[in-house]
Amino acid sequence: MMKSQDAKTIGVLGFGIMGHTWATALLTGDLEVHVFEQNKETIDKNRGRVKKYLQRLVEKGKWSGDVDATMARLHFADTEHDLAKAGIDVLLEVIFEDLVLKCETFKRFGEMLPKDTIIWSNTSCLDVEKMAEASGRPDRFIGTHGMNPVHLMVGIEIVRHPQLSDTVLEFTVGMMKRINKEPFVTDNVPGFIVNNGLIPWMIHYYHMLERGQATTVDIDTALKTSLGHPQGVLMLHDYVGTNTMVLVSEELYKATLDPRYKLPQFIYDMNEAGHQGFASGRGFYDWTEPKNPKPIPFAELVRKK
Ligand SMILES: NC(=O)c1ccc[n+]([C@@H]2O[C@H](COP(=O)([O-])OP(=O)(O)OC[C@H]3O[C@@H](n4cnc5c(N)ncnc54)[C@H](O)[C@@H]3O)[C@@H](O)[C@H]2O)c1
Predict the structure, then answer these.
(1) What is the reported pTM?
(2) Is 17 touching ligand 1 by the criterion CB < 6 Å?
(3) Which residue owns the Cα nearest ligand 1 atom 18?
(4) Which of 73, 119, 136, 195 is the most buried (most CB within 10 A)?
């Protein structure tokens, strides 16, 4: 089994919100990164962001690499097959949170990848053992749930399951430390550690807002100033994306039938209207000026675009 210090090349499947920030984090760990993303516009948009993040890390004294030389380690494959054959030590999956889509994808990659290649999934809440089985290499499949944005957040939730090999767990923890993360390990329970508790808590504040008991700004200010959170939950929602909140909450409700995971209707209405938050320019805040987000009154949240 390869040691974490010997791994050189990581494949990243999906270059959306999480995929491109994962790629940034991996690049800062001196790794070669090969990406396959199905949407060309997403590549064009997020490739430039990776460069900006690297520049900002240098400006803030958080990393001292050469930005242009590092960008030369970021490669784009034309097809899934090319990614599978790019000599990657690990495939990191960062596609939509959909169990059927992920299982079908893992089945294909399980057949295309060399048998030793390890697979990591960034799933927020899906059953890691089911996906491991779909990949045909359950001992080499592990959950690595990074937090948004991965290049700035140090926590990585490592999800183990009964069929996982101890050496793959050890390798993965070592790799996370190599890119300056603080991994923590959890069983494969619905929502793992983070979302198991975070989702009911966010939903609690959606209800409070809906009942008119406090405004968006008041809720977010309370959590920032009084609980020491870097941002309030409603702003966090905008960074996570309404679509991801819907997918994760529904998945957790299905797995547990616990009503604390049931979203209020207005979140579905926001999703339907395309108000995804930061990514679409509008969620609980108007992100027209990204550095100066403006809270949107509750009554206007679900206004159609
Ligand atoms: N958004 C968050 O804050 C957050 C946090 C932690 C974990 N996650 C998890 O990370 C994963 C990705 O979420 P996201 O927010 O980055 O979603 P996203 O929609 O921003 O990105 C997903 C990307 O995957 C691409 N894609 C889908 N299928 C593909 C395929 N077969 N081949 C290549 N590319 C494909 C899409 O085109 C899209 O660009 C999900 O499992 C999500 O639950 C998200």
Answers:
(1) 0.89
(2) yes
(3) 16
(4) 119
CATH class of 4-186: alpha beta
pLDDT band at 135 (very low <50, low <70, confident <90, very high): very high
Is the dihedral angle over the CA atoms 75, 79, 80, 81 positive or is it negative? negative
Which residues are bridge partners to 90 per DSSP?
10, 118
Is 302:275 a contact under the CB 8 Å cutoff? yes
> How far, in Å, CA of 298 to CA of 240, rounded?
19
Q: Is 55 in the pocket of ligand 1 (CB under 6 A)?
A: no
Could you read off the pLDDT of 249-287 as tens digits, one per residue?
A: 999 999 999 999 999 999 999 999 999 999 999 999 999
Cβ–ligand 1 contact at 252 (below 6 Å): no
Q: How far apart are CA 4 and CA 2, in angstroms?
A: 6
Where do the CATH 3.40.50.720 domains begin and end in the chain? 4-186
One of 1.10.1040.10, 1.20.1110.10, 3.10.129.10, 3.30.420.40 is the CATH number of 194-297, namely 1.10.1040.10
**C-beta 21 within 6 A of ligand 1:** no
* 98 CA to centre of ligand 1 in angstroms: 10
pLDDT tens per residue across span 157-202: 999 999 999 999 999 999 999 999 999 999 999 999 999 999 999 9
pLDDT at position 1, please?
83
Radius of gyration of the chain (CA): 19
